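Researcher: I'd like a structural prediction for the single chain below. Treat it as a standalone chain; there are no partners to consider.
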Amino acid sequence: MHKRKYSLFIAALFITFPLFSQFNTYSPYTRFGLGDLAKQGVSQNQAMGGTGLAIHENNRVNYLNPASFAALDSTTVYFDFGANAFFNEYKTTQHSNSWWNMNLHHVVFATSMGKYLGLSAGIVPYSSIGYNIKQEFNDFINGEAMDSYYQGDGGIMNFYVGTSVKLLERISVGVTMNYLMGRLTRERQVNFPMNSNYASASSIENFDLRQPVFSLGIQYRETIKDKFFVTVGGVYDIKANVNADVKYKLTNNIYPFDTLSMHGSELIRPKYVIDNDTTLAHFAIPQKAGLGIAVGLPNKLTLTADYYVQDWTGSFTGENFKSTKATSLNLGAEYTPNSEALRGYHKLMTYRVGGYLSNYYLEVNNVQLEDYGITFGVGLPVRTMKSSINIAFTMGTRGTTEYNLVKENYGIITFNVTLHDLWFRKRRFE
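Model: Treating it as a single chain, here is the predicted structure.
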């Protein structure tokens, strides 16, 4: 029976994997670097401001810190499936636009491997790109015009496998192998709408990434007389040097009735492929460090805070952008009125709230982007089980209308179902 459940889960991972290729953004900032880095965690984490480094509970899958896997009971297994919906509004000093999308978010699994060991695996988002931009340039002196079109889509997923072990009842340590894989496609076209005798050019870039990244985690939990707890957690992602496959194709389209002479010798036909090459893009996914703390009352109240730092300086650079040092402060709270109440379903519900303030990893037009927002959500338990339905709401802002930039106001609804089961139990009677 258990082998069949494992087989169903593995099949679900591969069947749902193509769904993750859908992009979930139309942000112009995804033109740069690895695109929009996803907000990590399942609904329980996201409703609490994205916190989770110090959450050591046995009622959820918390992949933000691999050390948390050891918190699961010895006969417990969890399956977690989630989706999200996005609403984005983009503003400049003169224009505005809005967009929405919905897609599958994650499929994860966690189980205990005994009294002191935990295991988790799943597919979660890492980054995505998606944009469709037109720029118009007018030369009023010569009466010429040029239009540039930029388009992009794709995403990078993280297939992870992690394990943890509990030491001395209070300390847990864990390690995760994150395998980043996916394709980012960026296209550009330039033409001259006022003069058909001019050449137009288009290019397409396919960026294919296959890269393992290892994460280490630790948690220390102290409980005082079963009435108060303090947990401290930390994670460290090891730096990964990447050799990604990048394939470029550049095409010149000449006015169809003429050929063009280059340097007085070479003739270019109406459609001529100038370059079609595959290279290796060398860059580094930098080390990432995070520290978190959680305090509260067991099974009732949790207050938590996380801080991350990751220095992307030197990883990416371009004409008007570069990567830089990223930091993030996340705060969250969780409250359950009475987890053992026999009456009043609202007393069994879990209420969550949080917020975050981030310095994004990109600097555009010499301005580092800021990303900040508030979060809230609710957990709806299924009676007599540890299964639950969880909903998280995020409202945030990134960028500004100053410095010739774009301001993004966004809303995210994340929905997930956490299914709990008991395995490895010995039967008294057959």
